[in-house]
Design a protein that fits this description.
Length: 146
């Protein structure tokens, strides 16, 4: 069982982490999400589009997530014996908010090192397990040369 490690803001207040739902979409920085039509399809097929961290009513971080069905309609890779939908962790943005982006493209580094990314991943894993996903996959690095 994962230990609950609720992150706190720089002022000591708790940062809430929860699924990104349609009704909060206007408060979430959508930097890497696809266009609106594809986001709507994602809501229909997977209920949420990832996790968000909230400092009060300000969304300050996002973990983008996708439901995948691998070839042949299953996630059976012939090795692990997994069959069913898998949950994919895509990019994670800490310190990104709609308000901050109106001033600069740089993330707000005050939110770095507070355990927000860890909390987003843990919340996403819990959500996937509660919704009968068979596996969780997460690329370990950006898809580019360093």
């Amino acid at each position: 069982m994962m230990k609950d490690m609720t992150p706190t803001s720089v002022d000591g207040s708790p940062i809430a982490v929860r699924p990104i739902r349609r009704e909060e979409l206007g408060k979430v920085f959508l930097r890497c999400f696809p266009d609106g039509g594809r986001i709507e399809t994602m809501f229909k097929t997977q209920e949420v589009i990832g996790m968000a961290a909230w400092d009060g009513d300000k969304c300050i971080a996002q973990q983008h997530c996708y439901r995948l069905i691998l070839p042949n309609g299953s996630a059976d890779n012939g090795c692990l014996g997994i069959s069913g939908p898998v949950w994919c962790h895509a990019c994670c943005h800490v310190g990104r908010s709609i308000e901050g982006f109106s001033r600069s493209d740089e993330p707000d580094s005050r939110y770095f090192g507070l355990g927000i990314s860890t909390a987003l991943c843990q919340a996403s894993i819990r959500w996937a397990l509660e919704h009968d996903y068979q596996a969780i996959i997460a690329p370990g690095t950006p898809n580019r040369s360093l």
